[in-house]
Design a protein that fits this description.
The protein is mostly helical. It is built from 13 helices and no strands. Helix 6 packs across helix 10 and helix 11 packs antiparallel against helix 13.
Length: 248
């Protein structure tokens, strides 16, 4: 018995990262299989000629039925953000590409704020009391930050993507922050990111331009600058917020 106890003590502990690494491989495999299935069933529709034809049909519809296309795009964005589904960032790029910078920013700004407010309200009125009771200690720090800094705390979370935006919507619904405060702070705080995302999308060339010029149509200064700003935005906003906190 003593020997078995000693042997068990000498055995190396299991690696704590084995589980997460195992799941990463599963996720990667599922993603590869999904891509393979999409290409198998829809590959013939993803050729450049097919995409050019579909783009022409899409732009014709958008020009002939501008209000319908704009309203439909608005509703789609609100539903995706309101239900906390993935894809909002890609939609922002797509709307910039389809509608242009001004109309795209206007659409994404108001649709993202409305969707965020819906997610906030669902979190508050469906789950707030139950989650607060179950995770009271974990949420105390968040509640204290809201009570101490209020709108400024939410504004910081909107500018600096420490958490995904959908998670901010759900977490804020569990706090005592007021609905109107959440609305206008989100509208203002997400505006910078919205402008950068939509501008990046608007800088992308059309499919016909890619067909004629090749990948050189993508490697242009406006596109490179827009996507460089997209990558630098979190760092820039983080430094700005640090300086604001230090200033008297």
């Amino acid at each position: 018995m003593a020997n078995s106890a000693n042997e068990s003590e000498l055995q190396p502990p299991a690696s704590p990262s084995a589980g997460p690494r195992y799941w990463r491989w599963i996720v990667a495999l599922v993603c590869l299989l999904s891509i393979g299935l999409v290409y198998f069933f829809f590959g013939r529709h993803l050729s450049l000629d097919s995409l050019v034809a579909r783009e022409e049909a899409l732009r014709d519809f958008q020009q002939q039925h501008w209000l319908t296309a704009y309203a439909g795009a608005f509703v789609i964005y609100v539903v995706i953000t309101g239900l906390s589904l993935p894809g909002a960032a890609l939609l922002s790029l797509f709307y910039g590409w389809l509608f242009g910078p001004v109309a795209g920013v206007t659409l994404v700004s108001f649709a993202s704020t409305l969707g965020a407010t819906i997610a906030f309200s669902l979190s508050r009125y469906l789950f707030r009391d139950a989650v607060q009771r179950r995770y009271q200690q974990r949420l105390e720090k968040l509640n204290a930050s809201i009570e101490a800094e209020g709108a400024y705390y939410l504004f910081t979370l909107r500018l600096i993507p420490v958490f995904p935006f959908f998670l901010v919507n759900l977490l804020m619904g569990l706090t005592p922050i007021r609905l109107w405060t959440f609305w206008w702070v989100s509208q203002l705080g997400m505006l910078a990111g919205t402008i950068v995302y939509v501008a990046a999308g608007a800088s992308l060339p059309s499919m016909s331009a890619i067909q004629q010029q090749g990948l050189g149509a993508i490697v242009r200064w406006p596109t490179l600058v827009a996507f460089a700003l997209l990558g630098a935005l979190p760092l820039v906003t983080k430094q700005m917020m640090k300086r604001l906190r230090r200033s008297p």
